[in-house]
Amino acid sequence: xxxxxxxxxxxxxxxxxxxxxxxxxxxxxxxxxxxxxxxxxxxxxxxxxxxxxxxxxxxxxxxxxxxxxxxxxxxxxxxxxxxxxxxxxxxxxxxxxxxxxxxxxxxxxxxxxxxxxxxxxxxxxxxxxxxxxxxxxxxxxxxxxxxxxxxxxxxxxxxxxxxxxxxxxxxxxxxx
Length: 176
Description:
CATH class of the largest domain: Alpha Beta
Radius of gyration: 21 Å
CATH superfamily of the largest domain: Glutaredoxin
Largest sheet: 5 strands, mixed
Distance between the termini: 66 Å
CATH topology of the largest domain: Glutaredoxin
Number of strands: 7
Mean pLDDT: 88
Structural class: alpha/beta
């Protein structure tokens, strides 16, 4: 059996390392772009909203939350990633519900009944509001889901598109 020379092995290893580095760079750029391509700029003032609640009477507004941090996820009933994200938020809510933080889901569905159905079917233990366009436009939502953390003073501290890990949610909430 003919074994390749040390030079050939070095060349192949270098080629593998180069493609690995290139692939890693592409991955990092893609994940950074995806995670930050939707939602408001961190450090910006949170846009005001006043929305109807899904499945029950009442409204929710950012102004009424003043002095309280808000963890808000913008979603749609037809969004598979949103459905995968919902258990993480429900778990975080159960763990942090005794703390002074508001959890809110905002549906971009045109049909308010879809938002109410999602609240039931996905077993969301916090309020679900129906977007009238003010959240989508005011927060620059272009991907779903988009998770936004607003501090007690009304400043956007974090914004991420896609399914955010439970540990990342917990780290955001620990900043208070």
